[in-house]
Amino acid sequence: MQGTNFVLNKSFVIFSFIFFTAYLSACSNNSEVTAFTPAAVKPEKTLVYIYRPTEASNALYSPGINIDGEFNFYAKNSLNMQITLAPGKHIFEFQAEKIYSELTPLSVKLTAGQTYFIRVNSSLTINNASTYEPYLRIFKLTQVDKQQAKQEIAECCVVKAKKTTKKTKETSTDKKSGDGFSVDKTQNPFSH
């Protein structure tokens, strides 16, 4: 009997040690957030970051974003888009669709040599109206200060660079035209 208790106690101690070690290593393995540093901007240009933090609400919906009336990209979940623009007043807006609300355009006067941050806010509420849509999908563009934006981008988003040059504008129009095929699974295939 004594030998059996000793073996059981020894096994219990070894198992407890292994479990405790695994538990501590799992707890200490927190994912570190890498710091986000905005790119340097040329003195004669402005740099605009448009980002959408990761959220479960409306995760599958990606409204298009127009800059000065021209389509640029889709605001997908975890998006971080870097855009170089000329100084001056620019209007950022969503492509109007009836299933979204609060699609108010954001007008920003950009100063040369400066960096600006615009967040895509997204929320989902219950629609109390007697329409077919049970939910009200809300997307809103908000200008954010640098410190808050750096923290939010570091926590959520991967960097994608896009510049507004003549070549980029041509590729944007190429995307709009064509046979309407899209690999974007979050968009309605019949909306083209």
Automatic annotation (TrEMBL):
<keyword id="KW-0472">Membrane</keyword>
<protein>
    <recommendedName>
        <fullName>DUF2846 domain-containing protein</fullName>
    </recommendedName>
</protein>
<dbReference type="Pfam" id="PF11008">
    <property type="entry name" value="DUF2846"/>
</dbReference>
<feature type="transmembrane region" description="Helical">
    <location>
        <begin position="7"/>
        <end position="26"/>
    </location>
</feature>
<feature type="compositionally biased region" description="Basic and acidic residues">
    <location>
        <begin position="167"/>
        <end position="178"/>
    </location>
</feature>
<keyword id="KW-0812">Transmembrane</keyword>
<keyword id="KW-1133">Transmembrane helix</keyword>
<feature type="region of interest" description="Disordered">
    <location>
        <begin position="162"/>
        <end position="192"/>
    </location>
</feature>
<feature type="domain" description="DUF2846">
    <location>
        <begin position="44"/>
        <end position="127"/>
    </location>
</feature>
<dbReference type="InterPro" id="IPR022548">
    <property type="entry name" value="DUF2846"/>
</dbReference>
